[in-house]
Amino acid sequence: MSTQTSDPPANSSPTPNPVSIAILDDYLSIAPPFFAHIPHLTMHAYRSTLPPSSLPALISRLAPYTIISTMRERTPFPSALLSSLPNLRLLLTTGTRNASFDLPTASSLSITVAGTTGAGPSRPNPTLDDVPSPPPPGFDATTQQTWALILALANNIPRDGAALHSGAWQTGFNMGLAGKVLGVVGLGRLGARVATIGTAFGMHVVAWSASLTQDSADAQAQAAGLPAGTFRVVSKEELFRTADVVSLHLVLGERSRGVVGEGELRAMKKSAVLVNTARAGLVNEQALLGVMREEGIRGVGLDVWWEEPVGKESVWRWERWGEEGKSVLVGTPHMGYVEEAIMKRWYAEQAENVERWIAGEEVRSRIV
Question: What pTM, to 2 d.p., does this model score?
């Protein structure tokens, strides 16, 4: 097997091969060992992400490949890109859906699209021998990331840590959570888990989504071992007006895009915090910047961004958040799913699908 794990020189391109795979956006260089045992497979791993606006560069990079491995929605595959990749026959993603893929176009071009479940491969993969087991049912990395951001904001952890290392001491009051209101926007699987943990901190939980009913909220509470009525369904206006912590857990779509805009942000308490570990597009970026520059709310925790990776010149990187009358920002580089066990199982499942496809067998977790 031929393997390369760094980007090629700017003016070169991989040689087309009957069975060749491009591994995209593998920021931590996790993937290559999982494919290394597959015979007669030429592999190139790209750690740098090309933005969707760089369509000609994406086409040039990807045109030679028979198989492309992607990680979540880091590189979208719209119709214009898929239609320009004549050699592509197998497109791999992680998870069981990918909203950034144009699936009808992939189907029309006879491109097989397959995902992963996170349960691991059905066949042995030598690279998985020392990988930790996945978390038990009911636990997930995104919920952990959400509460890490909430607690970092409430307890001033980044600011106090920086102060300690610079020779200073306390920087301000912590925000006690007991008795406060947790507003959960989207009470699905992840939202319900976040809400359940909120009750352990003594928080009152209110929830909203366009289709959420009190009956479904009661069912979520009872499934978590809590009494009906623990999660109280309110209007969107009431949630943003009364919540001390707002956490977003909606799937991004045409109905939910920009669901948090100027009106919602201006309605929030000045002492409140907003956390988004779902999708950046749920929030109007310019409206959020405007409110934060006026310290309209206490702070914001973001794990998802409008451009990923965040550009080096982005205001999210260099503006002095938490100073000069601006809201605090606690930001993380989309780590809500970057947990060792699940990431490695995803790649092991992808590798199995490559073996299946090469052998002419049906792939697992097929999407198209």
Answer: 0.90
Residues 258 and 185 sit within 8 Å (Cβ to Cβ): no
Report the half-sphere exposure of 220 (CA within 13 A, side-chain side).
26
Residue of higher predicted confidence among 1 and 282: 282
Sign, CA torsion 346/348/351/356: negative
How confident is the model at residue 192, as a pLDDT?
98
CB of 295 closer than 8 Å to CB of 269:
no
Question: For the chain, what percentages of helix, strand and coil (3-state, to nearest 5) are there?
Answer: 30, 15, 50
Residue type, position 144, single letter? Q
Residues near 343 by beta carbon (within 8 Å), at least 6 away in sequence: 28, 30, 337
Which residue's entry shows tokens 């699209």?
Answer: 113
Other C-beta atoms lying within 10 Å of the C-beta of residue 281: 17
Burial of 22 from C-beta contacts in 10 A (0-12 / 13-18 / 19+): buried
H or E segment and range at residue 20: strand 20-24
